Amino acid sequence: MASATAVLPYVESWIAYRAWKLRVPGVQYAVWFDGRVQLSGAVGSADLASDTPLTTRHLFRIASHSKTFTATAILQLMEAGRLRLDDSLETHLPELVDASSGIGRVRLRELLEHGGGVLRDGLDADHWQHARAFPDEGELLAMVRDDGIKAEPNSRFDYSNLGYGLLGLVVVRVSGQAFGDYTDEHITSPLGLDHTHAELDASRARDYATGYSGFHTSLERRPLVHVDTGALAPATGFASTAEDVVRYLAAHRQGSGELLTDASKRLQQRRAWTSAPTSEVSYGMGLILEQVAGRRVFGHSGGYPGHITRSFLDPEDQIAVSVLTNAIDGPAHELSAGVLALIDAALRSPARRSLTSSLTEPGDTSMFEGRFAGAWGVRDVVRLGDRLVTLSPGGPDPVAAVDEVEVVDDSTLRVVSGDGFGAVGELIRYERDPVGAIVSVRAGGGVTLWPYAVGEEFTPPFPPSA
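Below the sequence we write its predicted structure tokens.
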């Protein structure tokens, strides 16, 4: 996958620009394929007050990614013959035998698939905005005894953090281990995931990226503290790094020989429900199944006060992507999708359209590549597989509007395909200094652009109009 490897430096450049443009405090990211982590990076700040640069070793609360670990633990215990997926909840949590809500009769399979009809977060869920502590085991059981069910089990998709908290209690009762001890011994340690933990680790307090509020109602961000998630750790408590997450997801690919048998992986990755009647997003067992950049992927997203995260694996080409952000409005969804879109564009290299009768493969095009800015925005010239293209890094989808170009001579490109509203057929002319460095670019359409680096205050070098 040489084309995928070649595009990774631009992936970093695109993430850096988008993170800066959106004023996200920090973004940590990783890409895995061909059997190893191919890209691991971080931009921005781990803590704005101290101006601490974010690194690839800072920890993020990956929130609902936790459900993938819990589902994996349940399936491991199933493989060991210690439980059955059709066991009722009360089989392992006898405190719920006489629960008036009937939740004790819900099956483990239904909880794994969010088909148990269980309340999402309870009648008082202000632990999600730090108005109260997350529930402990006793509180969780009390929350579901009388008011735990809102729909007939196995009748529809009802995402439930409470349901996964209960599955975590099942792991504890069946294994005889604390939840974090079980996942460490059977999931994270075997994979060498040294930076992945089931709950807040006080001994590593300085390693956590500070989480921040969003711009929903304020022009400033405020820091949000990290707290224990109590009995909901199996639903939302995990902390990790992007690098660890892609290695973890890669272990769920068929044939890896890790974590589960292939039969259990197929079961976990099988669609049980769609999230809505017309939605393309569906759910398996602890895994979201969806289409990203035209590819079928599985993984999970996560939202914790101050952190938004998203990770997935394309099982066909075995590409894993993880993006972690430390703001409650962090763009992890769009950034992760954009990363896969760029890799996909480099790998697929669709048939090239040209205005010329003969077109040779572009050789070394580095002398034309770069980021350029003008009054109307920013434009990148970048190599995607066997194509040299121009695109805008400013939008959420980096390949939404791509113009393919060909080399005319050492100072000229021609736009050979793209949207007809643009400048198809026109020339892009480069002005260089005596040593060959780019001074400016007269883009298709005749507008001048200048070299630009992320974070620069840029003003076109023309006098303001009267």
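The chain has three domains: 2-62+197-346, 68-175, 349-466.
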